[in-house]
Amino acid sequence: MTLQLFEQALRKQCKKSYINLKDNSRQEKLKKQKTTSLKDVMFIGRPNTQKLWQSCIISFGDVLEKTTLDYVELNKEKVYRNKNFLSAKIDIVFRIQKDVYNLESKANINLDAGKTKKALETLKRKHKMVVNGLDCQNEGFQVISKFLVWTTATSEDAAQIAKRPLEKQWLMGFQNFFNLFSVEVSEKEFFSMLQKVWRDEVEAYF
Known about the structure:
Structural class: alpha/beta
Largest sheet: 5 strands, mixed
Order of helices and strands: HHHHHEEEEEHHEHEHH
Radius of gyration: 18 Å
Number of domains: 2
Mean pLDDT: 94
């Protein structure tokens, strides 16, 4: 398997997630939003192109999360689509043989200290929920819980950015993820692919 398989899945998810961009309904919805920030005030009476861009980039993070599950399935590994383990939303859960991966998808790990601590506490809590929800003790599964950071290549890179108490053991870069499927991806190759898909499937409709 190659990065091309991930790109194909990403493009497919983009086509689903940005239908409202192509038919202009996303733009119309954003226009109707009330003024809630200083940025909104600065653009009163003139188009705020940043609002559309910000809306789409946030959605792109969700698209990456969905694409990850699709990619795992394309690699014929077990995916758990039901994300409501004990009423908690879990981002990404899949299993390769006896290893269950509980991953929180992150486009940015450079959070302030308070948010970093809270994020780690949430990950640990969801770890326990996955263990119980999949009856891992009886099934002989090992649960590996990490933040999957799409903007860093490795866990070492992510650890240099993240604040305490987040450490390398709780982090996974995109190279670490693709290595699970024996796929080698360079930073340049991966970022170039993301940029290309963004331009073709999203920015082209601005």
